[in-house]
Design a protein that fits this description.
The complex is a heterodimer of chains A (about 230) and B (about 200).
Chain A: H1 28-38, H2 46-53, H3 58-63, H4 66-80, H5 86-98, H6 110-122, E1 141-144, E2 163-174, H7 176-179, E3 186-195, H8 196-200, E4 208-215, E5 219-221
Antiparallel strand pairs in A: 1-2, 1-5, 2-3, 3-4
Chain B: H1 6-19, H2 25-38, H3 41-53, H4 55-63, H5 65-71, E1 82-86, E2 91-96, H6 105-108, H7 113-116, H8 118-123, H9 128-134, E3 144-149, E4 155-159, H10 171-175, H11 180-184
Parallel strand pairs in B: 1-4, 2-3
The chains are: A alpha+beta (about 230), B alpha/beta (about 200).
Chain lengths: ~230, ~200
Amino acid sequence: MNGIHDVGGMHGFGQVHGESDEPVFHAEWERRLFGLRMSLLGRYTLDEARRASETMDPGAYLTSPYYERWLASLEFLLVEKGYLTQAELEQMVAEYEKDPDAPVPRRENPALVERLLRMVREGGSPLPEAMGPRRFREGDRIRARNMHPPGHNRLPRYARGKPGKIARLYPAFFLPDTHAYGGQEAEYLYCVSFTGEDLWGSDADPSHLVHLDLWESYLEPLPDVTDRAPEGD
Amino acid sequence: MGAESPDTRVKAIEALLTEKGLISSDAIDALIREYEEDVGPLLGARVVARAWTDPEFKASLLKDATAACKELGIEGLMGDHLVAVENTPTVHNVVVCTLCSCYPWSVLGLPPSWYKQPAYRSRIVLEPRRVLREFGCELPESVEIRVWDSSADIRYLVLPERPPGTEGMSEEELAALVTRDAMIGVERVTVFQGPG
């Protein structure tokens, strides 16, 4: 979707502000939210999580601190997947609003702890089955398609319609455009390089390349120079 | 999301999911500890220091970073498709996720706030040389800047250049010089730096 999250190339956000010796979490709720969301590993995919983040109101997205975006995306996913209803969530929120010091119930599940730690320590998201031949090879000139799907997609606006070159071949991965909705389509992934000039125009820095990892259906072949009509016609 | 504080909403979600048996309190505690204490940039610094001192390891790191890191016992979530990109006197690499905040957790831990916010995400692909200068990293035009926008499942780790003045240093001493920001690519490693 042409959402607010797609910020590559935008102006107006000002200087990058670092924080020296920044703690991993700035508040207890951030810490708890992180642990809570990680405890749900395996119940949702990264693509679903990204899609959920993109449903946030654009104004809220730009002005919310990072973990508030996580919170909004988590609530969306939990309700969508039926793990809780909006009604029971609001009811529980109201109860904690009335009594903020009320404790959160504690339950221990060592088997779950072991399973989750194994997942985070080994990684290993499953890759799709092997597929047929690739369409593109290293060095091929391509154009990123001028596509504007309303749903989840991982081709940023700044690269759409721009010419690039296949820099590396990657294995096949699930296509986010459908995987974010539970689909199992897979395509070959490519690392594509774009020059600063092709992306941003002749004023761009000449010694500047941007690489994007793009699925095969995001790309189309770029005809060779020799295919073009001769100049002066 | 309502106007209530995030604190209340997080408590409510934890209470509901715990009561439903979907999560457990000890699981939350363990995962917090994992990423607040155990998984962090010191892991990536070890990888870099090994690559600086062992040419065979460096070659295998550049060929298949996931496998090379696994040799050092370093692996995990957001690191199963790791690619290392090497800085040289003529090429400087820097990593971003313009669309969200994808980051190589398995070698760097969780990303800093600035990495996840629109200012960095919007500008590093557009004007990397200027942004790097704001980080104190001045690069002449003879150095090509390669920005890696992590739009898929591949996670990138920058292998910074080994600074002069480090000849004879042990791997451990070298690792202590390598900062998280150098492995993202917004600064270079110098002999006077350390993690922090």
